[in-house]
Amino acid sequence: MSISPIHVPRETLEAVSHGEYYAPHDVLGAHISGSSTTVRVLRQLADSVAIITADGEYQARHEHHGIWVAVIPGEITDYRVRATFGDEGVVTADGYHFLPTMGEVDEYLFREGRHEQLWNVLGAHLERYTTELGEVTGTSFKVWAPSAKAVRVVGDFNAWNGVTSAMRSLGASGVWELFIPEARAGQRYKFEIRYQDGSWHQKADPMARRTEVPPATASIITDSHYEWGDAEWLAQRGASDPHSGPVSVYEVHLGSWRKGLDYRTLAEQLIGHVKYLGFTHVEFMPLAEHPFGPSWGYQVTSYYAPTARFGSPDDLRYLIDELHKAGIGVIMDWVPAHFPKDEWALGRFDGTPLYEDPNPLRGEHPDWGTYVFNFGRNEVRNFLVANALYWLSEFHIDGIRVDAVASMLYLDYSREPGQWQPNLYGGRENLEAISFLQETNATAYKNNPGIMMIAEESTSWGGVTGLTENGGLGFGLKWNMGWMNDTLRYMQEKPINRRWHHGELTFSLVYAFSEQFLLPLSHDEVVHGKGSLYSKMPGDHWQKLAGVRLLYGYQWSHPGKQLLFMGQEFAQINEWNDGAGLDWWLTDNPAHDGVMSCVRDLNAVYRAHRALWSDDFRNSGFEWIEVSDGDHNVLSYLRKSSDGSEVVAVVCNFAGVPHNDYRVGLPEGGVWKEIFNSDAPEYGGSGVGNLGEVVAENVGWNSRPFSATLQLPPYGVVYLTPDK
Fold this sequence. Notes:
724 residues; alpha+beta; eight-stranded parallel β-barrel; 15 helices
């Protein structure tokens, strides 16, 4: 007597056969009923199908549009499927026989927005199972698409035909899941999503950890086999507070530092250069995958995938590992403020505003033509917070610089009246974005001791580096855009006019300790017609180079950490062009090479003297000597160490002529060593200086009991410290 299979309505079979059913596992796979097991499999175009069990082989019959069914006596725990196409038989495991690869706890944490290792759950992950009939390897796929009618996986493993790879909905979580035994590392894939209107759309995986090289857009199944060698670095990092240490950052755009290099060859060439210069950290402009190169990475489509332009994710791990072994920290730009509208990426992912804010007055950025994240949605916030943790955890990043923070904080950012909507209290603050930033910073610092979270925030928002428990945003550092703008505006004035702009230099000290600042001379200041730092300086070639050296000497001694964009270390003449490499030939010129030597020595002096970095964020670390000598274009001040053990006197001459016998008040008498002079001949300077030291006499000056007469070089800065 034959046993009938478990009944499935014809309309359901029709939907399953087309890969359109939201719960294909309810139909396909093995289902026990009474004393038998019904096995249904979808094998389109097969001539015959058999189900292989530990007890034997059972022929299946064709039921409906590629669906084959067999009824097997008893309960079976494992089986394989033999599908015959012509003369060829293919035996595979059945992905519809496996339990979901996402547990209830993971679903709960994701819905609550609290899953701190989301990348280990969603996306594509290689799996290995030991079953009764042997080992099964494959890939589990999971994607969040709560409004989709159906979701399929397409890729190299199924000839990009998703009909046989329909995913199941995991219910209220909005996650869809499927294990595909045939899928292996290195194969490309996308998700095929059916919108509520019935249309199908292929989308890259939002959680992809590897992608094709642009302009190709597929995601790639990947697994890391990298063995890190930076345990000593991480241990030292975790035992220290970088904010109170020396931080001198070299900002790099990987694609144009030197053209044609990949992650591994960059490790060979970049590290030697940075070590020579003495920077403590490298900051990479965004490394997450982005489709349009000239966006410099600021329009991200794959937040969890390092750009494939320069190699594999493990190649990037190698670069970071080698930087750490060389004693160099790594900061990465991160762009959670907005994302591009490419139809194959995050935009309208499941046919609805899923990742983007659904409110048209909040969900699009007018300046950049991009979508703005829905910071108030738990799952979206989780996607972003976990992404920051991902780079810190999986790539050992030492710091994250968050781009365009101001655009997140203000609902009216770049919007005219009528183009924005107040918050529930009637204000212009984006309360959800504020909460998101606080959560990101607090979670990042909690999970990764010794890292830095850095805000590029261009307004006077209070408490950017304030503690979250006190209502602050919780960043460790904030870019000091006011210092940058005022200083560059002053430097572009001819020396004869600078006396009228003296306040632009001194104003930064009015607010220097209101936040924990980093002083940036970044890529934004040397592109889009702004010219290089060299070109901003007035005067002839010598004066321009002297002005650059003076700027750096001032920057390195000003309260706050510092950042310099690549190419400016040798005073590149042309503004930055991301389509070309830096003008390295300039370093063969002694004058430009001298600027590079100046930067190297500045970093050495900076790191050697605690007074220049240990008390950057309190007024106890800074003291004016003379603030008001605008007639001579001179500033003089003291930098003091946090433990009171060291002091450095800094005297900057922004005039185009030397000042001979210029008297400066000092806090103690005796010999003061000249530890830095930007006008030294080896830097290309004129050699005006103090022969290595001055003597502070018992002559009162600048309200101090001692003073010394200095020879101040034109466009020059000197550092002095007591000879102990």
